[in-house]
Predict the structure of DUF523 domain-containing protein.
Amino acid sequence: MKTQKNNKILISACLLGSKVRYDGKDNLIDSELIRRLENEGRLVPVCPEMEGGLATPRAPAEIQDKFPLRITNIHDEDVTPQFLDGAEKTLEIALREGCCCALMKSRSPSCGNHEVYDGHFNNTIKPGSGVTADELMRKGFPVYNERQLDQLTEFMALQDR
């Protein structure tokens, strides 16, 4: 059986307070669970967009098409290669660090696991997932978002047995 300390969780760096969002801000989660996991050294922070070479701050980006994949920023510049590169590098980090799952930022074109913005830059949400979340899920990693801390807690309880 695995020990609790070996069950690392990949986490969007913005959720831990890193100012890596497109607008230079963070999405800090104020959660006892997250503080405990961080104190136990179980969190592996990553920003897929920065891993892919995008700067902070940067123009907001949204998924335009899934097949073939096309992601553009608000200036209609194609940033698909950077998002794909970031997804691959993030997967490599998760594998190298022995992560059992991921806690990613909801609605992000990289990290969203259930819904993303619709590609029109008007704050409209649609079902779908981001590039990195897709890659992680394809490789068998459960992906949760900050609205699913209860499900993450349940998953971790099973892993820690």
About this structure: Residues 1-5 have pLDDT under 50 and may be disordered. Residues 4-58+80-113+127-159 form one domain.
